[in-house]
Inverse folding.
């Protein structure tokens, strides 16, 4: 299994720049690239990546997507005077050429292909290419929106040819619609293109009818183009997360790509003058983390837009930290998608219902009939083209005030979310005989014989069991728990002969340690004696047998009927567990694995892996000693190692579908991240 993260960067791509005044293009500056690299150095991330050199993309590679005529046009800009460059630029919308543009655009293509080669050959698991000029707006015969060659589209075609790959997923989280990518793969079912974009009912650039949610692809490619239009500005972490959970991820897991490419624009982040959105840098850590679970981890992130230097560079750092497997910072902000986001989600889910099994059982009210010509734009109504000239100076001042405000906010915010990261990732407490089942780099815990901890165990367990027998195990468990709570380590794993007793003790100790909220997930058949009234613990019980207990505010049962071999449980995971967990915002996640667990090893690894998005990745895993064969599958995701191949998502059983639907209905008033419709 491949490991490591590739980073592709070259200073030379900073030579492409705007030579004249142009208020539309003047945000696409060389410092976008250099400031990202500088910040990566600052966080000591460069030395943790494998540095891969850039190369030029060849003419054969560029013409996988672009016409020879267009290639010639760009080539000819090399020897032009400034006057000629201006004229050539004016042939396209929001584009500038420089004498080095052709060279840089070839390097941007080549850098992207170097990244894809590193990942497809198994040299690294994943990686990021920092490139300029960006690519996703450029088309077969046209430059557009600062983009010259379509780096990501070329990479998709290149991979399919060279590595005989059948399915590529392109996730475009840039705030603009990558219409170039859409056009290139519109009729191609082998490339699934997902884009969210500022749209404002078609008033926002590039103001295209075909950017709306009902444009789903054509011919054989029907269903393989997903557009999520943002009709309001100010979208937040919870809006982006909701779209991932309820739109992209179910479809992506069903599609089961062999490679994931990200058109990674950070103009969808806070402070960006183009996007006007509010997602904070750690949001990109979470988005990245989700995508790392597809395609056996083969994830290539390629820079597109991003025009607020601080926001851009912090978000790029969060992306690369996550690719490297670091713990995730908690997602900040209220976990409640806004009404406009809910409407967009509903519309795109309804539009895609005919094409994806994951939506086929949903009650989605039919779509509004959008006229074929234009969307909500009235005939003759002018398209917003930016700020009226008279107000430009004032607007520039307000913009720069805003930018400085965001700078200050981000300085504090990043300190806050990164300062307390523990030095050690995972500690374990297991019987010595089991130690060889563990990854070699985890740290063992032996502090259980402290008298203080023993006293806590004795006081707790005396009435239940022969205390002396479990004294050491439970003492070790408390020691592990304390290390997590005191932020000495990120996560811990304990094997115990009495998993459910252990969990009750652990929870009690959490209260002693003044933890506010603990999310407990029980997998398998267990008795639970947990006090659930005050909201300090939330219990999710995943079991095969029908439980008699009704769901309460802080306790839900998922009675999961065993699925067919290889089937995953994405509807439960993305439809219930993760939305509830993100809404609850726990300080610690405790996962308890008992006998008869019905998820299978892949299911349990995926669950544990995805739970690292919560509670700053602080997880305590308790395993019943009869289930010790699961040790490696649980330890690996805890250490940030994502290995399992989840395979395609076969249709879930009717009973499970029904259970998930009822549960969502019942819970979505309380736990808002479950919502995915404005109706
Ligand atoms: N009034 C990328 O982010 N704005 N391109 C044009 C015209 C162009 C963005 C506004 C924005 C291009 C890669
Ligand atoms: Zn953009």
């Amino acid at each position: 299994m491949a490991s490591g993260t590739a980073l592709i960067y070259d200073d030379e791509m900073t030579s492409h720049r705007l030579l004249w005044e142009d208020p539309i293009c003047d945000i696409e500056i060389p410092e976008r690239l250099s400031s990202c690299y500088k910040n990566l150095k600052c966080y000591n991330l460069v030395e943790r990546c494998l540095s891969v050199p850039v190369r030029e993309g060849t003419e054969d590679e560029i013409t996988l997507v672009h016409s020879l005529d267009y290639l010639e046009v760009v080539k000819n800009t090399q020897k032009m005077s400034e006057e000629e460059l201006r004229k050539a630029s004016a042939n396209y919308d929001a584009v500038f050429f420089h004498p080095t543009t052709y060279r840089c655009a070839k390097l941007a293509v080549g850098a992207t292909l170097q990244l894809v080669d590193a990942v497809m050959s198994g040299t690294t698991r994943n990686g990021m290419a920092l490139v300029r000029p960006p690519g996703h707006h450029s088309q077969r015969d046209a430059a557009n929106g600062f983009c010259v060659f379509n780096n990501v589209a070329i990479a998709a075609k290149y991979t399919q040819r060279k590595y005989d790959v059948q399915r590529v997923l392109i996730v475009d989280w840039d705030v603009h619609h990558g219409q170039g990518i859409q056009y290139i793969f519109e009729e191609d079912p082998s490339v699934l293109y997902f884009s969210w974009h500022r749209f404002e009912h078609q008033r926002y650039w590039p103001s295209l009818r075909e950017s709306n949610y009902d444009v789903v692809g054509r011919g054989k490619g029907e269903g393989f183009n997903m557009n999520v239009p943002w009709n309001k500005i100010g979208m937040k972490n919870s809006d982006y997360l909701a779209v991932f959970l309820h739109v992209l991820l179910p479809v992506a897991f069903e599609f089961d790509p062999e490679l994931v490419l990200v058109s990674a624009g950070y103009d969808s982040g806070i402070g960006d003058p183009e996007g006007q959105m509010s997602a904070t840098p750690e949001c990109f850590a979470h988005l990245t983390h989700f995508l790392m679970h597809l395609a056996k981890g083969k994830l290539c992130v390629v820079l597109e837009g991003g025009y607020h230097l601080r926001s851009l560079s912090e978000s790029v750092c969060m992306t690369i930290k996550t690719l490297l497997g670091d713990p995730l910072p908690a997602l900040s902000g209220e976990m409640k998608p806004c009404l406009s986001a809910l409407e967009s989600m509903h519309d795109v889910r309804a539009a895609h219902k005919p094409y994806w099994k994951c939506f086929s059982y949903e009650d989605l009210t039919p779509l509004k009939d959008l006229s074929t010509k234009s969307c909500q734009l009235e005939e003759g109504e002018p398209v917003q083209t930016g700020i009226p000239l008279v107000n430009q100076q004032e607007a520039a001042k307000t913009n720069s005030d805003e930018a400085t405000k965001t700078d200050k906010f981000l300085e504090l915010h990043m300190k806050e979310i990164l300062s307390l990261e523990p030095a050690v990732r995972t500690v374990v407490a297991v019987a010595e005989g089991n130690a060889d089942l563990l990854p070699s780099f985890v740290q063992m815990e032996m502090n259980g014989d402290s008298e203080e901890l023993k006293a806590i165990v004795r006081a707790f367990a005396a009435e239940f069991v022969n205390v002396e027998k479990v004294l050491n195990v439970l003492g070790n468990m408390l020691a592990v728990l304390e290390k997590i709570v005191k932020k000495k380590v990120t996560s811990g794993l304990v094997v115990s002969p009495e998993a459910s007793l252990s969990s009750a003790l652990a929870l009690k100790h959490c209260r002693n340690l003044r933890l506010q909220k603990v999310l407990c997930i029980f997998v398998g058949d267990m008795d639970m004696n947990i006090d659930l009234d005050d909201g300090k613990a939330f219990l999710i019980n995943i079991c095969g047998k029908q439980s008699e207990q009704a769901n309460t505010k802080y306790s839900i049962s998922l009675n999961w009927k065993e699925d067919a071999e290889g089937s995953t449980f994405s509807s439960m995971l993305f439809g219930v567990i993760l939305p509830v967990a993100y809404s609850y915002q726990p300080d610690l996640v405790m996962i308890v694995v008992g006998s008869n667990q019905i998820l299978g090893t892949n299911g349990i690894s995926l669950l544990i892996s995805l739970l690292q998005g919560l509670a700053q990745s602080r997880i305590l895993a308790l395993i019943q000693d009869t289930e010790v064969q699961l040790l490696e599958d649980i330890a690996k995701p805890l250490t940030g190692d994502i290995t399992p191949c989840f395979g395609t998502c076969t249709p879930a059983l009717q009973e499970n579908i029904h259970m998930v639907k009822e549960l969502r209905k019942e819970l979505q008033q309380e736990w808002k991240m479950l919502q995915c419709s404005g109706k």
